[in-house]
Design goal:
mainly alpha, 17 helices, Growth Hormone, Chain: A, single chain, globular, two-stranded antiparallel sheet
Length: about 450
Amino acid sequence: MLATVDAPQLGLRANWRQFTLLVVVNAFVGAMVGLARTVLPLLARKEFGVATAAATLAFLVAFGITKALTNLAAGHLADRFGRKRVLVAGWLAALPVAPLIIWAPAWGWVVVANVFLGLNQGLAWSMTVNMKIDLAGPERRGLALGLNEAAGYGAVAVTAVVTGWIAASYGPRPWPFAMGIGIAILGLLLSAGPVRETHHHVHEEARRHHGPLAVPLSFRETFITTTVRDRSLSAVCQAGLVNNLNDALVWGLVPLFLAAHGLSVGRIGVVAAVYPGSWGLGQLATGAWSDRVGRKPLIVAGLWLQSLGIAGLAAFVGYGAWIGCALAMGIGTALVYPTLLAAIGDRVHPAARASAMGVYRLWRDLGYAIGGLLVGVVADAIDAKGAIVVVAAITAASGVVVALRMQEAGRSSLQSVPPGADHVGHGTPANAGPDGSAHSEPRGRPR
């Protein structure tokens, strides 16, 4: 008699061991990027004599383009080869990052190191997001993503302040980056060892909650729908791009701006850490909060709070004031970051979710490249304060776009269609609104 195989269980309680392990893995992913938050912009000026803001921010452009394109590929690769294999590949890409920075004879080597960092972040962070969504199921998606992002950005904050302290005492190289070698090895060992594949959970969620995808879509259709055709998904994509555009400002230009105002490397590290620290801790609450009150209010409020914090950097002078601005920016980002990810998951069928998430993360992380270029050009043409004001205005405008275009969770053409619904175009219900989603009740309690 054939033995029966139990169906995968969905939910945080049923999968708490694997979920906790993935939280730890994502903390290591965040720690890798945290190595670069405080020291790299200062390293460009002090050790390599890079004179212009545009040249200094080349590392961010390289990181952003690589991470964005890797995000786009990661979803397809995960569907084809499995989440775990892609996660392991991400950690293999992390291995050269710290050695390249430590022994770099020229600034170009640091830029190349950030290409590898972009590969690591695009593959590894994408998979921790997708794997947690797989395990959690639809009911507690916001909480799951809040925990994931809190672990990652909490680690960013810790490593940012630690590397700042080390650099203040021992110089910008090699010691601030030495821990990166151990982080990469530990992340690889955990991912290749005890982390388990979650692809079966995707099929189980589809069976229980969605049924088959109404009309299977090509990657091209998924890309177009996520980027343009669905008004809500396109609003989410532009908000993600702007969020990381202003993060590029904080990462690449703000340390130079603060140094020009006489702040020590240690104090710059504190300001650089308050931002991702409040961002990370805040997500412990904001993800679950969005499960209850809906995604849109938190996204709009978060973008506008970010804008105020960014503008405050230019408006106020003083260590305490800048810490307050970093705190406002971090809380605003905590409202936005996990909520945008959950909004994608709300509107997309599990079978298309990894690909749609990859499209969203492509646009989101292109914000690093676009931000690096924009901030560098404006800072060189005007000054750092002018670049800060421009980014604050763009962030406020992004909140207006979300307020006008986004609707709470309905059904897009990347969702399943209720039995008996008529079809228009690519599996879209005939009663769809202008964004391609069927009219549904506003999001309140999780469904």
